[in-house]
Write a structure and sequence with these properties.
Mean pLDDT: 92
CATH architecture of the domain at 13-103: Distorted Sandwich
Number of helices: 1
Shape: globular
Order of helices and strands: EEEEHEEEEE
CATH class of the domain at 13-103: Mainly Beta
Radius of gyration: 18 Å
Largest sheet: 4 strands, antiparallel
Number of strands: 9
Helix content: under 10%
CATH topology of the domain at 13-103: Deoxyuridine 5'-Triphosphate Nucleotidohydrolase, Chain A
Amino acid sequence: MLPRRAHAGDAGLDLVAVEDAVLPPGGRAAVATGWAVAIPEGMAGLVVPRSGNALRQGLTVANAPGLIDSGYRGELKVILVNLGDEHVSISAGDRIAQLVIAPVSLGTAVEVQDLPDSDGRGEGGFGSTGR
């Protein structure tokens, strides 16, 4: 099935499995979608979980978001992981993830000796902005 939006204004195109799979608790698998894409340069494909699958089954995308670069031409496979307590069965035709096409800034890395000051966070890491 061609990836499509469930509703006209949805950001994500539903990706559907073309094969069956069973994921035990903690298990993961690369599930085929049967599709390859040509994403325009300056854009990226982001494979993101379906919230309903995550809530009901604990099924999510292991490397969320999965990144599809504009130069990739192979089949889209979704790396799913079962974070739940029971086996999850996937059947061909099941919606397993969503594909969001988004613009990206193609910046370059530049080595510097010092970084400019920030708005006060500085080097504060995880949790440094409060609850």
